[in-house]
Every structure is written in C-alpha cells, then in structure tokens.
TrEMBL record:
Protein's UniProt keywords contain Transmembrane helix: yes
Protein topology in the membrane: Multi-pass membrane protein
UniProt key word Transmembrane helix: yes
Family classification: Belongs to the resistance-nodulation-cell division (RND) (TC 2.A.6) family. MmpL subfamily.
Name recorded for this polypeptide: Putative drug exporter of the RND superfamily
Keywords: Cell membrane, Membrane, Transmembrane, Transmembrane helix
Location in or out of the cell: Cell membrane
PANTHER family hit by this protein: MEMBRANE PROTEIN MJ1562-RELATED, MEMBRANE PROTEIN SCO6666-RELATED
UniProt-listed Gene3D superfamilies: Multidrug efflux transporter AcrB transmembrane domain
TM ranges: 12-32, 184-217, 229-253, 274-295, 307-329, 362-384, 537-559, 566-585, 605-625, 657-686, 692-712
Originating organism: Nonomuraea solani
Domain annotation SSD: ranges: 197-328
Length: 803
C-alpha cells in the first residue's frame, strides 16, 4: 500500500508541489482571520445544574455577570462625594446606546458592597448588547470612552475585556514561540543532518502544519465555538509532530540515496518503511485526541477536534508534500553541507546502552519503575480547581481589576453562590371552564405572585451554614415563579470549605412550597465539572485504549506488545502528572516560569494533558518497535532484535525528541498559565519517554519477555494477515563486482577476529580503504599468499576471511 502511495507521489511530484503552494497562498488569509473569533470559557457541562443556573440568570433576570467592570479610584476624594458621582455618570452617559444594554453603579443601587473599604474606590457594571462576537465588537468601540474620566484612575476588567486580553496574549505568545523555536530548530537540524537543505525541509513541513492549524480552527468557528486556549495547544502539536515525522522520513530517504538507490526507488522504499510507521503514529496520536470529543465541555471538544485534525495535517504533509520535494531533490538533499553528519552515526553510546540493558534487564526494570513511581507520588495529593483571571500574567489589567475587587471590596462580591428557588404557586381563582372546540382561546386563571416572603424559611436556614456572611434576594421572575438568592461567604471560591458549603445547600430538603432548588456559581460549576469529567473519563479510556490496541495489533501482529505499550504509557503519564502537581499546585516552579500558583490544578487541562501525553508517549515507542519487529522477522532472535532496534533508532529518536522539546519549551514561555501547564506536562512526558521508558524500560521488559513479545494464537494470525498493511519484500540488490586487490607492503598489521595480527616488524598499522561489511576486500601481502579481509559490522577492525 505505502509503496504504491510513494510511487504515485513521485510520479505526480510537481503537481503535488504546485497544488500545495497554491493552497498555502490562498488559505493563509483565511487562517489569519482566526484571531479575535475564539471564545473564552467552555469548561462547563451543558447538562449540569450550575450551567442551568447561569442560563436562568441570563434568561430570567437579565444577566447577573456583567460584561465589563469599570473600576474608578481617587486617592483623596471618596466615592460618596457628589463630584465623584458626576465624573462617573457623565462618562457613562456618553456611551452609545447601540452597544450598551444596561449600566449599574453605586449611586443607582445604593449598595455598600460597590464601595471599597477605604471609601476611595467604586465600580460600574456595564452589560453589552448582542451575542459574544457583537459584545466584543461593542467593547472595542467604547473602550476608549470608558477610560476617559477626568481626575480619576480608571481600570477596565470583566469577562469581555479579559477575553480580549486572552486573544491578544495568545497571538503574542504564538509569535514569540515561533521566533524562539525556529532559529534553534534550524541550528539543531543542521547539526543532525549536516546539510542546510535537509535541515530546512522539516521547518517547511512544520510551517505548513501551523498554517493548517490556523485554517482548521478558523473553519471550526463557523460551526462551533473554539476555545481561545486552543490556538497555542494545536499549533504546538502541529509544529512539533510535523518536524518529528519529517525527521524520520528524511533519515530513511537519505539512507536509500546513500545506498545508491534512484530518486524513485528511494521515495518508494522510504514510504514503505518510515512512511508506514509515521502513518500508524499519526493515527495513534489522533485517536487519543479524538477521545476528547466524548466530553461535553466545549474547551475539550474544540481542542480535541482541532488537535487531531492538525496531527493528521502534519502526517499528510510529511507523507505527501515532503516525499514530493525529496523526489525532486534526490541526492541534492545533502547540498550545502555545513557540519559533519551526526544524524547518520549509529552505534557508540546506543550500542553500549543496548548491551548493558540486555545483560541486566531485571535491574533496569526495577530501578526505572521505582524512579517513575517516585515522580508520580505528588499526584496523590492533587487538588482540582477552575480557570479564572489568574491564568493571565500578573501585569494584566483585567486580572488586576478582579484581584482589586476581591481584596478591597466585599469578599466574593462578584462570585456569590446562586440559589434559584422555584416556588410552588396556586391559582388566584378557579380555572375557567373550556369553551367549545376551535372557538377561541380558553382563558387561564392568574397565579399567585412570587415575593421574597416565599423563600424566608430557606434564607434563615442558609444563614446558619458555616462561612455564610449574608443571603440576599438578588432577583424575582414572576413569569417563571422563581427567586434568585445570592449567598455570600468568606472563603476562596475554590477552597474545600466553599465546596462543602455548596454540597450542604444542595443536600437541604425542599420547603413545602418549593418545587425545585438549583445551585450555581463558580464553586458549584467546579464541582459539576469534576463530576462530569469523572463520569466520562472511563469511557474515553476504554475507547482510546481499544482503538490504540487495534492499531498496534495491526502494526506488530502481537497481543502482548499493545498491552505492554499501554502499561508503559501509564507510567509516563503518572510521572508527568506528579511533576505537574509539584510544579504548579505546590508552586515550586512559580518563580521560574512566572505564574501564580492557585493551590490547585485545572481539571479540564489535566484531561487534555492525559490525551496529549498518551499520544506522544505512544509515538516514539512505535518507531522503536517497528525497527525491532523488522529485526525479529529477519533473524527470529528476540534479544538481538531488541538490541539492534534500540541501537539503530537511538540517535534519530533522541534527535526527534530534542527537536520537539525545543518547540514545547518555546511555547512554555507563554503568558497564559494553562499553556505553561500543558507545556511542562508534555516536556516531562517526552523526557521521561525518550530516556527512561523508551531507552531502558521498554527494551528491558522485552528482553525479559523473550519470544512471548510476539505471541499470537493461530486463529489471530489468520485475522492479522487480513488486516495487516503488507509491503512486498524489496528485490535483492544486484551483485557487487569483485573488489580490486589492495597491495600492502610487508611488514603490515591487520586485525584477525578483533585481535592484532602482525606480519614482519612491529610497525604502525597500514590504513585500508573503507569497505562494505558484506563485501570482501582483497589484500595482497608479500609473504605467503593472497588473503581476503572483511570489515567488522561493529566497526572494530578487519577480519580475515578463510579461503
């Protein structure tokens, strides 16, 4: 299959390149339209009570969460001063009515909560008209007027300004990450390949993947909301994996060219070997990310869909566009050589590692497992929180406004626990008797009005709960027979005490005149989110593990290897989660990475990291196992196959991991804490996977399992032959012509089976020309008869060949 694809790509190489260039030029403007069209939030479960509460707030009470919060302060004049009132109200009156739906100030409500404790600050709440995009446009139109208040210090925050800051920060982070990563990647690629042309090709494929990410996310905004956090995540994955996949394809192609293959044969054989592995790797990573579609949260669904799509774009670019370019370049892929070719050197360190692991597999298995378990231990005290203004940098204006409100004004004044009480009402008179059918509408009797008195018993009970400071009637809905209560409390919304308070309210028995009580707010939303994630996570695990297991079975024809790979992934993921808790929840890297520790980890980001790390951890194991399987099929010796697979892939996989770490490290400089958290999680996973797991744990476990690695019952063998993507064996290479004799003057020194063999006087060794290990070289010596020597495969010297 892959040979046919390679042949088709080669023969259509110019068409592929022209179409790819045209698509990039035409779609680039569309991708750039993404900025400003993404949505914040998306962490809630649409079916949860807290989501219902937020919807009722908007539909029944005209909304309780303002779009814009304008904070005013004067160092000497207090808010109660008429001059303060005049300055604020004059500025608000100048706001165009086509953008603003409602405004609330201290002077319109008389609420003491809207004045700071020192009396020198107050704030106004502004509700904008329209949907999310219309509100963002409206805020952009009035932002300057909001700040134009004479003699007052003005700061602007709230949900819409925060989203604007998130969009701007995301664009700035993306530009900075690319500016950091691209030069470093180019230098490392030149070191790996030695050639400027070869080094530039992965970057071209990476840029195509980034453009594909922007276009795909932009198209997604037409059919669904796309999280503002998705851009950095999707771009990071697309760029990193595109470079990784290109690295493996390039290495295989250059090996074929070095062996004397024609351009077409090199492309075809590259697709049949590296191309096959890249395809299985891309499908495995995309499968893990598509598992996020099982969750109801927009944040996870949009990132899962976008990330899976960009992984497939990176895979297609590496399997179609890159082979087409290689078909055109041929041996010129090695042009503009700048350094020695480190990427083609094998053996050395990895030969020593393979030999050591094969000699002491049990020791490596025990020690590495103990290290991974110790890294995972901090996850045992994990605490999950929610995303708030603290994901932005400390210098963010919207974040400063939110922190000022929480510090200088009434505690949680903008984040009460919402309690919606649906009152059981009765008719004020007997219902009218129905009239004749189809003769007008039947009158409906009026029902009793809803008043604060209907919820007085509940209010009394709520006030007695721990940490409750006040309970206020925040709204009445006569049409829906509902009363909204705002429960004030003196704890952080993400604290254990606040969560227990929400649970206590939900556990209260209903009053006799109450039909239903719905509890919402930030803390309730966090509890509902955790319940939703825990309910969906097992299904995600079942689906992803099942599909991944089938892909691994199809790739390797074994029932043991898929199970072992999944177990290895559990250890990698556990180590990543443990480091994340230590770094972010416990705050040990807060000063290094410049973020604010909240004492918790965002739950949805944890699930996202699970999906991403699962896919990436499977990535490099696929490349290792592919080479091990090829050696197993060739030799039938499990130990030799594992050692050879590790030795042959060690250099290139390490290079690929290093390049991916550069990309992730660049994105970890983002100003948004969520992106930092994801970057650190991926960074740790790749380091652990590329060193401890792939280099030590996997080979040690395969050495201990022996032939059981490839166990497959006979009925399953027949099934595997039906689904296996089989590539025909390559034709044998043409016979080599006999080598001309190399005349060596006596005395000379050669190597006989690894030991010096001296003829004549003890002089310096005579250098011999490089030779293929499979091709004998004639050596004429002056004493005795002609002898043949063969280069040792390990590069240790020369060996006599008996005649």
């Amino acid at each position: 299959m892959f040979e046919r694809v390679g042949r088709l790509v080669y023969r259509s190489r110019w068409t592929v390149l022209v179409l790819s260039l045209a698509a990039a030029v035409l779609l680039a403007p569309l991708g750039l339209q993404l900025f400003g069209r993404m949505a914040d939030g998306g962490f809630e479960d649409p079916r949860a009570d807290s989501t219902t509460s937020a919807r009722w707030n908007d539909d029944w009470y005209g909304g309780h969460a303002p779009d814009v919060v304008v904070l005013y302060r004067h160092p000497k004049v207090k808010a109660r001063d008429p001059r303060f009132k005049k300055a604020v109200h004059d500025s608000l009156r100048r706001l165009p009515g086509r953008y603003v739906r409602a405004m609330t100030t201290y002077w319109t409500t008389g609420s003491k909560k809207m004045v700071s404790r020192d009396g020198h600050s107050t704030y106004a709440l502004v509700t904008l008209k329209g949907g999310p995009q219309t509100k963002r446009d409206g805020y952009a139109a009035i932002e300057r007027r909001l700040r134009g208040v004479p003699n007052l210090y003005v700061s602007v925050g709230g949900s819409v300004p925060l989203l604007t800051e998130l969009n701007d920060q995301t664009a700035a982070d993306l530009a900075r990450a690319e500016a950091i990563a691209m030069p470093v990647l180019l230098v490392l690629l030149v070191v790996v390949f030695g050639s400027l042309v070869a080094a530039g090709l992965p970057l071209v494929v990476g840029l195509l993947a980034v453009l594909g990410a922007l276009v795909l996310l932009r198209l997604l905004t037409e059919v669904t909301e796309v999280s503002v956090f998705s851009l950095n995540v999707v771009t990071m994955l697309g760029l990193g994996l595109a470079i990784d996949y290109s690295l493996f394809v390039l290495k295989a192609f250059r090996e074929e060219i070095a062996a004397g293959a024609s351009n077409e044969r090199a492309v075809v054989r590259t697709m049949a070997t590296a191309g096959r592995t890249v395809a299985f790797s891309g499908l495995t990573v995309a499968t893990a990310l598509l598992g996020l579609l099982l969750f109801p949260q927009m944040f996870l669904r949009s990132i899962g869909l976008g990330a899976a799509a960009v992984v497939l774009v990176a895979m297609v670019a590496a399997l179609v566009v890159l082979p087409a370019v290689l078909g055109v370049l041929g041996p010129r892929v090695n042009a503009l050589r700048l350094t020695p070719d480190f990427g083609r050197r094998e053996g050395g360190l990895w030969h020593a590692v393979a030999s050591s692991v094969m000699r002491r597999p049990l020791l490596y298995l025990v020690v590495v497992t103990a290290v991974l378990v110790s890294l995972a231990l901090p996850f045992l005290h994990v605490s999950f929180g929610n995303v708030d203004h603290r994901v932005l940098p400390a210098a963010s204006e919207g974040r400063r406004v939110a922190e000022t409100l929480d510090r200088d004004f009434a505690k949680n004044s903008m984040a009460p626990i919402d309690v919606h009480v649906l009152v059981e009402r009765s008719f004020t008179e007997a219902p009218a008797r129905p009239g004749p059918l189809a003769q007008g509408h039947t009158p409906i009797s009026a029902v009793t009005s809803v008043t604060p008195a209907d919820v007085r018993p509940l209010v009394s009970r709520l006030k007695k709960l721990p940490h409750v400071t006040a309970v206020e009637v925040a709204g009445l809905s006569q049409d829906d027979g509902a009363v909204r209560l705002a429960v004030r409390y003196d704890r952080d919304p993400m604290s254990a005490e606040a969560r227990e308070l929400v649970r206590s309210i939900r556990a209260m028995p209903l009053e006799p005149n109450t039909r239903r009580v719905v509890v919402g707010g930030i803390t309730a939303a966090q509890l509902d989110l955790q319940d939703s994630l825990l309910a969906t996570l097992p299904w995600m695990g079942l689906v992803v593990c099942s599909v991944t297991g089938v892909l691994l079975f199809a790739a390797f024809g074994s029932l043991v290897l898929p199970v072992k790979a999944l177990l290895m992934n559990v250890l990698s993921i556990g180590a990543s989660f443990g480091v994340i808790v230590w770094a972010f929840q416990d705050g040990h890297l807060a000063s290094v990475l410049d973020f604010t520790s909240t004492g918790s980890i965002e739950a949805t980001v944890t699930v996202l990291i699970l999906a991403v790390v699962f896919g990436l951890s499977m990535d490099y194991e696929l490349f290792l196992l592919s080479r091990v399987r090829a050696e197993w099929l060739r030799t039938g010796d499990n130990t030799a196959a594992v050692a050879a697979g590790l030795q042959q892939t060690g250099g290139v996989i390490t290079s690929a991991a290093l390049l991916l770490l550069v990309v992730i490290g660049a994105f970890s400089t983002a100003g948004i804490t969520i992106v930092k958290l994801l970057g650190v999680g991926m960074f740790v996973a790749i380091v652990v996977d590329a060193t401890l797991v792939r280099a030590l744990l996997v080979p040690a476990s395969m050495r201990l399992l022996g032939g059981a690695n490839w166990w497959l019952p006979r009925p399953w063998r027949r099934f595997h032959r039906r689904i296996e993507i089989h590539e025909p064996e390559p034709p044998p290479p043409p016979p080599l012509p006999p080598a001309p004799p190399v005349v060596v003057d006596v005395p000379s020194r050669l190597t006989l089976r690894g030991r010096p063999a001296i003829f004549g006087a003890d002089t310096d060794p005579v250098p011999l020309p490089a030779a293929d290990p499979a091709r004998p070289t004639w050596v004429k010596v002056a004493v005795g008869r002609d002898r043949r020597v063969r280069a040792d495969p390990g590069g240790a010297g020369w060996t006599w060949v008996d005649e």
